[in-house]
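Item description
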Amino acid sequence: MDWEDYFPTAIAERGYDYYSKGYVTDLKQTETQITATVTGTQDYCVVIDLANGDFQDGTCECPYANSHPYCKHMAAVLYQATAADKPASQHQVSKAPTDNDNHEQTATKLVERATDRQVRDFLSVVLAHDNHLLKMFRTVIGETNVVTDLPNYLASVDDLFDSNADAGGFIDYGAATDFGDETLTFLNEEVQPLVDQGEYGLVFQILAHLMLKIDHVDMDDSDGETMMIVNASVDLWEAVLTKADADVQQQVFDWLCKQLAKPLNIIEDTLDDLLFTYFKTPAFIDAKLAYTAKRFRAVQKHPDSWNYDWQTEKWLKHYLQMMTAAHMPDKQVIEFCKANLATPQVRLFYSQFCLQHHDEAHAVQLLKDGKTLVTDNRRMLAEFSRQLKDAYQQLGEQQLYRQELWQLLTEYAPADEALFSELKQSYPTKDWPAVREQLLTAIAKNSNVDLKPLYVQEKLLDRLLKAVVAADGLWDLQTYESLLKPHFSNQLLAKYDHEVRKMATATRTRRKYQQLVRILKRMLDYPDGKSIVQTIVHDWQQQYPRRSAMMDELSRLKL
């Protein structure tokens, strides 16, 4: 498969790095398509289109792919697919030995030939002039000192930011890649060895400094470097929080509480998860109970704040969780809930509390009343409705359960696939088709609702085709192409023809012309596709003869 010429060298190299680290999973390949999941800032779905076994185009869910034709995740999938096509003994993509490989082999041979005295003398000279190697060597031999070493480590963190930022402190897209790589290397080569040596107090101080720097950095991280670093740090935090002694754990706890009381940017959720995932001893649970109550009261003092609702919901949720974890007496729980029933999250919690204590009637009434209190908030309406339908199901109220599901599907969470499936399962097979038609009609009354996933679920391919053809652009066509193509190839090809001609009328850049050619290549994979493409190309040659870039790109088509 010849594909590497399409990718800039830097993107291909990053993709190879992801492939070699095993970040590509769930790879599936057919004659026309490769799909896989690639781990980056999060899990990204990648689709590679093929024609006659050759690379044609690719799509990825990552932010970078929104504004660029190719990304490292696509390259990683292509490297994995290339490896899968080779014999088992050659599954690793072959690469010529790099300079680093040769240097490593040379260094190993030199050390083997050197005497102990020579090695010692050489190390003394090198370590005296390289602070980075000195820190690594001290860690390797187990000689670290928090007081003397901490300033050096913090300076190293600062240097990661300063060396990649411009005069204004901004890290642009090009520098962001180096910054991410250097920071991950720092965590792996300098901080991880400290974890291995049990220097948890020192690791905590380094991570705390890094996290606060990350939270305030001004950077174009289209490839997700920021969250990649945060996620890599989480594993180190876990080691500290599970293995450190009580004094260090208390230091971390106090630091987390202090930071979460301040406005934060991207690290807030991570610090929040650390605080409420760990610290499970009774003393820490009591401390978290008091802390969450304090934070909840503090938020209530600022009802005009732009994030008042979100902060209220967040700290209230944590406080309710801590009440449960602390095994507070039922009387206190009930008193708190009754005093705060105007807050939807409290009402939802209290209804669950009532169900657990077999007070079903009270729970249902709380939820029904709750729906009347949040009529202007569809998200909260859906929350109350979901809990109410579950309560009806628990009580065996089949009719009320179905009614609540119906309302969810037609009003609060239109066309939700899981709810649709749940309602289907509540009906006998023979009754479902009639119910389904009424339901789809009711759901369709919502503006901008997308019924296509439900058509797929129900195998209503005629309706799916009609919706795809009616939709603007090619996104829906390419989303459902593999499902529809075996049955409706002529209709899909006609849709391609219509859309690609419309795109050509407004296209002026070479990149857009390349996109048009990639679409034409997809069309060649259809029966009668070649003749349609030939007609389109001929028409464009007549219509746009002065578009030299367009003519150049069209000449690359193999017709």
